[in-house]
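Ticket #4471: structure export looks truncated?
Reporter: QA, pipeline team
Priority: medium

Steps to reproduce: submit the single chain below to the structure queue and open the exported record.
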Amino acid sequence: MPGTNLTREEAQQRAKLLTIDSYEIDLDLSGAQEGGTFRSATTVRFEASEAGAESFIDLVAPSVHEVVLNGTALDASAVFQDSRIALPGLLAGRNELRVVADCAYTNTGEGLHRFVDPVDEQAYLYTQFEVPDARRVFASFEQPDLKATFRFTVTAPEGWTVISNSPTPEAADVKDNVWRFEPTPRISTYITALIVGPYHAVHSSYEGADGQSVPLGIYCRPSLAEFLDADAIFDVTRQGFTWFQEKFAYDYPFAKYDQLFVPEFNAGAMENAGAVTIRDQYVFRSKVTDAAYELRAETILHELAHMWFGDLVTMEWWNDLWLNESFATYTSIACQAYAEDSKWPHAWTSFANSMKTWAYRQDQLPSTHPIMADIRDLDDVLVNFDGITYAKGASVLKQLVAYVGMEPFFKGVQAYFKAHAFGNTRLSDLLGALEETSGRDLTTWSKAWLETAGINILRPAIETDANGVITSFAVRQEAPALPAGAKGEPVLRPHRIAIGFYSIDRESGRLLRERRVELDVSAAELTDVPELVGLQRPDVVLLNDDDLSYAKVRLDELSLATVTAHLGDFQESLPRALCWASAWDMTRDGELAARDYLALVLSGIGKESDIGVVQSLHRQVKLAVDLYADPAWRESGLATWTEATLEHLRAAPAGSDHQLAWARAFAATARTEGQLTFLAALLDGHAEIGGLVVDTELRWAFLERLVATGVLGEAAIAAELERDKTAAGERHAATARAARPTAEAKAEAWAAVVESGDLPNAVQEAVIGGFVQTDQRELLAPYAEKYFAAVKDVWDSRSHEIAQQIAVGLYPALLVSQGTLDATDAWLSAAEPNAALRRLVSESRSGVERALRAQSADAASA
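Actual output as written to the record:
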């Protein structure tokens, strides 16, 4: 039985048989305030190529009342089985199907999500359909290549607003609370959308060349309206419109552009055509650093880029998901880096520091896969929204741009949009367009980069004479050591890289770039670089300068010594970020001891100006000491780090981003009685640090640490929730309660997540976040066995998003031991999990295995 799965072969067969013309969808959401179910009536008109053929339409619903195919009523109980409605005896040519069902509101962030705001006690709805969840709201042919037009009619409670892909009807046209939308252009089911509720709205427009005017809207719940910085969001959006339309040479393809900040959203955002949904944590209730604004801007631009990559032109099947995600990621970062008057021209630094680190981690897991993945079914794609699809793909595209040139690259993209507008494509369609405009044969490049897995290592091979003059220079390339279980063979790849020569300026003390050479590294073990022979050897030789390629980069001995002493002295942020990333990767690989990584960070972080890099270093140091350090030294390392966080907090400029970041870093690790007393004093106002505003979110950060260490308890949690009676406050309180250092608190949290299983997605995530505390390994130890006893049943009985949270979040990753590996292996052998669950558990196991190796390396360095 297929359950809710769909195979690639089934989708291909259905696409050969059917061409979908239109959907008319009538939803009665008048009872949304109370919840439960809603009436869904769908009329689909489609063409079939064979008389008498059979097919099916997808639907996930508690009950089906009516199925009428070409005027004949079918027995709903007979044809509706296993989330499919069988369609027998199709006519050659035009067919019409009507399905009436009761569909269910969800609290999992899938389908039609329903949330009640504790501030005004009003319900707020939004849809989330990627990958296969439009079928939870209306009967649909749920695959990306069966595009159609969609006309929505929605009955909503009085006083509510309904937003969809098409422009929202004028108030005068809404009769009896029925909202009738015009048909959409031809789009895929998964990017249709409905957002319904008493949302607050701000409107504006984008005014482009030749009289172009696109209506813009921003929506959020009224309880967040006071925090909504709409002007800043509109500014980023307009910047994206201007830059993308120039680079793509194709006007924005939809009638309006709304951005809706919605509650309990599972991802960062979703590219619904003309109605983008975004997690409402991006409406900042408290002070955040500029890195948070930069990340929000990248998310906004990423989704806007999807209006072309993904919505206008859509992949035929999910194995080309990267055509959507990698391109949206690359172009969003490029827009931030290159657009006129951008606030974040250093965006490639942030990309190297965060996105590529994600890609490097993912590419060394047993589940690593080619960018163009082999997606056999929906179960495969549901776990494939990963660092390969987004970050590695974008990294490879950046290299492709360097390889073919930016102008030919975008000319190819322009031709691609014009040829395939409102259609579906494969990899070959895009490569063909790029070959045409660049004059490059991309067949070899594609096979090496898009169709293979793993990450190469690049090392400099340098020889000098007694005076430091280079006599030989080559780039040594190592094939990726694919982890056990990974598919494919290790390969050497062609790389487009720059090599930077950096030396210390004796006057300023800064590391300055004195030379840059850009070249192609061949798909061989050694590539000679004769143009560098005869030059004076600099203090630092940096391969992959400007981060053009995707590779792990290692420093030679002299460069590493200079970087260790002077990493913070690079004048530019990008080479600093590349060296930080290399050091972190060496730590994860056990090539650099965790204690030495800590020392390196402490020596250079005070000179790091990029706040995004600083915050990443905070997270990485904590992870290194918690997981990669010798357990016998761990507490000493944590003590050193915590003392440093407090020193930097006191020294940071008043009111600065650095001050806020160090306050959060201190709150994440405070441990001694004196430190916790000071943290408590900051919380209750008995102590102050000039310029530091302990606002709502920072209060919760302080409180959660004080609760996790046993300083405060339930009374303090309840009092703080009384101060912040919002949905965010409820999530923070759930985290704090699960973080209490008692067996009773852990049992209560476990029961709520695993045994009861009715928590909303965001609350469940909050509870899991509180349950897993690095200082509470002894309390968590009994739950390893419970995890393996429960996880398969959880996977089989919960929705994908809910089950994945549990499978990943509750895996005993903190119990770094051979026993955890053995227990995992035993479960993998006996439980017979499906491929998706096996992948997630195997990935978690790989983290424990890596931590064991790193701990051994750290112990050996003592």
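Status: closed, not a bug. The export was complete when the record was re-opened. Leaving a note from the reviewer for reference: The CA atoms of residues 753 and 759 lie 7 Å apart.
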